[in-house]
Amino acid sequence: MRLKQGMHKLAVICGLLAISSVIVSGCSGNGNKPGNQAVATEPAARQYYIFDTVVNIKLYDDAKAEEHLDHIDTMLKTLDKELSRTLEGSQLYKVNEEAGKQPVEVSENTVAVVKRSIAYAEDSGGLFDPTVGGLVDLWNIGNGGEHVPEPEDLQRELNLVGYKDIVLDEAKRTVFLKRPGMVLDLGGIGKGYAADEVARYLREEGVKSALVDLGGSSIIVIGSKPNGNSWNIGLQDPDSSRGISVGTIRLNDHVIDTSGIYERYFIEDGVMYHHILDPRTGAPAQNDLKSVTILADNAMDADALSTFVYVMGLEDGLQYMENLGDDTEAMFITADDKIYVTSGLKDSFQVSSAQYTLVE
Ligand code: ADP
Ligand code: MG
């Protein structure tokens, strides 16, 4: 599979923002200064919860905003019942219950996501593997009381990883996991799929100006700001406890997605264990990266890429992203506060924090 690629417009990073998460700000100076033509109306905003993630959506200058927000609520609830691994009775839940027993009939959404997850697995040489669910449960990262698993438990779950044992029958619309105990986990791309669906709906409805924010680490901007300017998206410091922003980037119609090790982790004996797993070892990927940020024209690619490019590490990840072509870009932040960007970002990227050094 080739990852879908498209147009994007990146402009210069503007000044430092003291923020701890990805937010939108008017740092271009065109926005809300007294005397300036400020943004015409307050956005219609709503918060949702899907796949254990808080989603914030803002629609600007839209007469039918409340209607759209209601519709999105229904859409997200449906997607949760299809793709959530933890929601009892969801389609994915049933697929996992029936692992090694029988195929489970699923919806078109689920077929589409499983199909793409297999394609990403093939594309990444297995570094993206949606059958890591058993390992995700074993490590249980971000849920409290975590500890490094016993080697035999790790080996048992590692043996159950293998995307080649997912049987997807598109004609019958069924998913089957060949081996008992296998656990399908679409956590690496489900949010991206949901965000793309929301964006597609809003565009079809003619919405010209909107923001979709999934848990702060994934943002879709639709159109431009109501005043016609680009959106200014803050790039979060992977270690948000320091409250520093790397800078902001100006975007129209685009997706920015970050996978970072500071989102969910625990520390044992001085070692940091985070939630991005290396399917080769069964353990959190060990490298010197704090975060990988992907800029793409769709959220599912950005979501999957940020996860498996993280597993690839700096050198292989950079090369992989360069080979994808110049429409999908990446930014890597290393443990020693160096920033590496793909060639499409080189001219437009300026680091705005003294903490970080851009490697040319
Ligand atoms: P977040 O969901 O916090 O934004 P990511 O998008 O990076 O983070 O996705 C991480 C999630 O993806 C994990 O919580 C897990 O469910 C799943 N995952 C972890 N490692 C892998 C992997 N190597 N391949 C596929 N999915 C993975
Ligand atoms: Mg991701």
Automatic annotation (TrEMBL):
**UniProt-annotated location(s):** Cell inner membrane
What broad class describes the main subcellular location of this protein?
Answer: membrane
Q: What is its EC number?
A: 2.7.1.180
The protein in question is named FAD:protein FMN transferase
Function as written in the Swiss-Prot or TrEMBL entry = Flavin transferase that catalyzes the transfer of the FMN moiety of FAD and its covalent binding to the hydroxyl group of a threonine residue in a target flavoprotein.
* Binding-site positions, Mg(2+): G188, D303, T307
Cofactors that this protein relies on: Mg(2+); Mn(2+)
> Key word Signal present in the record?
yes
Keyword entries, A-Z: Cell inner membrane, Cell membrane, FAD, Flavoprotein, Lipoprotein, Magnesium, Membrane, Metal-binding, Signal, Transferase
| Cofactor detail note | Magnesium. Can also use manganese.
> Upper taxonomic classification of the species?
Bacteria, Bacillati, Bacillota, Bacilli, Bacillales
Q: In the record, which residues are listed under signal peptide?
A: 1-25
Q: Does the keyword Lipoprotein apply?
A: yes
Tell me the superkingdom of the source.
Bacteria
Extract one GO cellular component term from the record. Answer: plasma membrane
Q: Which Pfam families match?
A: ApbE (PF02424)
Tell me the InterPro entries matching this sequence: ApbE, ApbE-like_sf
- Residues annotated as coiled-coil are none
Class of enzymatic activity (EC top level): transferase
The text of the family note is: Belongs to the ApbE family.
Which Gene Ontology MF annotations are present? metal ion binding; transferase activity
Catalytic activities: L-threonyl-[protein] + FAD = FMN-L-threonyl-[protein] + AMP + H(+)
Q: How does it sit in the membrane?
A: Lipid-anchor
